[in-house]
Amino acid sequence: MHLAIRWRHWFRPVTIWVPSWPLALALTAAVAVGVVVIGRNLYGFLAPVRPETAATVVIVETWAERGYAKTIANAIESGPTGRVILVGSPLDPLSDFSKFPTSADLWAARLQNEGVDPSHFAVVRVPGAIRHRTAHAALAVGRHLDSSEVTAANLLTFGPHARRSALIYEQALPPGTRLGVIALAPRSYDPSRWWRSSAGVRTVLSELIAYVYVRFFGNEVDAARREWNGLSDDQRHVGPTVPEP
User: Fold this and answer.
1) Taking the model in full, what pTM does it have?
2) I need a surface site. Which of 25, 177, 182, 217 has the fewest CB within 10 A?
3) Residue 61 lies in a domain
4) Does position 158 have pLDDT exceeding 50, yes or no?
5) Number of domains in the chain
6) From its phi and psi, is residue 189 left (phi > 0), alpha (psi between -120 and 50) or beta?
């Protein structure tokens, strides 16, 4: 009896409204349809292909595997003529390609082997960075273009990373630079059915979270700029280009 009185002292009955079963069924169906529609369109949203027709520069992020060499070469040669900026960071010194200072130098050699004219290449090297790798690359390209008269460029990158990468480059490039983006399709999963593979789910969902963070909560470009300003000249320097084989 005493316990019951204590419970009544701390709790009181309330009326809770819940949806009727027809409404609950309709809401469940609406959520299911929404998930399907978003899922089928999510990859396309994160991996846009909207090149800038007036671009005179193609910026290539060189994080790709070797199997993309022909695809990248074809994408470069089918676009507007002009400079090709290869941006990359140092390679693992224990890798088979350690003779190249950065992935950009490695890809300069690969693209030359695919028949791309090396006289159009500009290699932009980025110091190794644990955080904000894309932002550091975008700022390095921005410094490279700062004294030029480039007004439009295309960013060539990979899969669902493309929208976030384009957003970061738009913040880092010189003001007034129009940026197109070309997202190359992944090889490890089917983009139209990305939810059917662990690689697709892992990549698409992680890039969605990263894009939302960069878009609404964090400015990676400002953070990378502060990190760059804190580096010494020696830390900023990455070795010279190795002669092509």
Assistant:
1) 0.83
2) 217
3) yes
4) yes
5) 1
6) beta
